């Protein structure tokens, strides 16, 4: 093990470039998947004729597919039907699709956990369905949704490592290149990767705790 050589400035800078790619992919996917997942979750909760069931079937299929398969599909299969995405956007698209399905189930479960009487009471005051949903039901459900949503997004950050299979230059890919040049760097690189993932995921959990306290 050569920690000194492994942690040279050139290698650290290369790892940090990979970390930035990891964070960027995760951040974009988190924003898109939260928006799309919230819409899908609402549609499923509202039980719109035909629409909710159709969306539910598609969501369940996606939730039960491996993320790696979806990454392969967006990068290798979509070009066959004329949709060409570079490596970065292929990974973002794959992770957004997968995480949207996961988030939608969390949103739907959170909304279902609120007693129906809350909606009925809000409607009785003259609020429309949507007004009651966003003013009364959603704020209560959000408090319950935060922990599982954050947990899902932490998993998303760690799952970015799967993009190494299509050579996205994220932190795992860059670490692999470094220890591929010198086998004495293997353990130092794994230590560095573990530290980077821990820092990013722990920071996200701290933000979530503060948000949870604020909403509580």
From TrEMBL:
Keywords: Amino-acid transport, Cell membrane, Membrane, Stress response, Transmembrane, Transmembrane helix, Transport. One of its GO terms (cellular component) is ATP-binding cassette (ABC) transporter complex. It is a multi-pass membrane protein. Pfam families: BPD_transp_1. Gene3D superfamilies: MetI-like. The chain crosses the membrane at residues 20-43, 55-75, 87-107, 185-208. It comes from the Bacteria. GO terms for molecular function: transmembrane transporter activity. The keyword Methyltransferase does not apply. SUPFAM superfamilies: MetI-like. InterPro entries: AA_ABC_transptr_permease_3TM, ArtM/GltK/GlnP/TcyL/YhdX-like, MetI-like, MetI-like_sf. The keyword Cytoplasm does not apply. One of its GO terms (biological process) is amino acid transport. Residues 19-208 form the ABC transmembrane type-1 domain. It is found in: Cell membrane. Belongs to the binding-protein-dependent transport system permease family. This is Amino ABC transporter permease. It comes from Brochothrix campestris FSL F6-1037.
């Amino acid at each position: 093990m050569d920690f000194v050589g492994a942690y040279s400035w050139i290698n650290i800078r290369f790892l940090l470039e990979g970390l930035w790619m990891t964070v960027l992919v995760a951040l974009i996917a988190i924003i898109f998947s939260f928006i799309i997942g919230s819409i899908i979750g609402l549609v499923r909760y509202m039980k719109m004729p035909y629409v909710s069931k159709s969306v539910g079937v598609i969501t369940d299929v996606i939730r039960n597919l491996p993320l790696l398969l979806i990454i392969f599909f967006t990068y290798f299969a979509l070009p066959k039907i004329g949709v060409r995405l570079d490596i970065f956007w292929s990974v973002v698209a794959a992770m957004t699709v997968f995480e949207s399905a996961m988030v939608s189930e969390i949103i739907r479960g959170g909304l279902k956990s609120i007693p129906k009487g809350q909606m009925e009471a809000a409607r009785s005051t003259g609020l429309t369905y949507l007004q009651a949903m966003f003013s009364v039901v959603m704020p209560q459900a959000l408090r319950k949704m935060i922990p599982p949503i954050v947990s899902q997004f932490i998993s998303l950050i760690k799952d970015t490592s799967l993009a190494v299979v299509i050579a996205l230059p994220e932190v795992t890919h860059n670490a692999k290149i470094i220890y591929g040049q010198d086998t004495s760097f293997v353990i130092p690189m794994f230590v560095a990767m573990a530290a980077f993932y821990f820092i990013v995921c722990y920071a996200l959990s701290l933000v979530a705790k503060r948000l949870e306290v604020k909403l509580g």
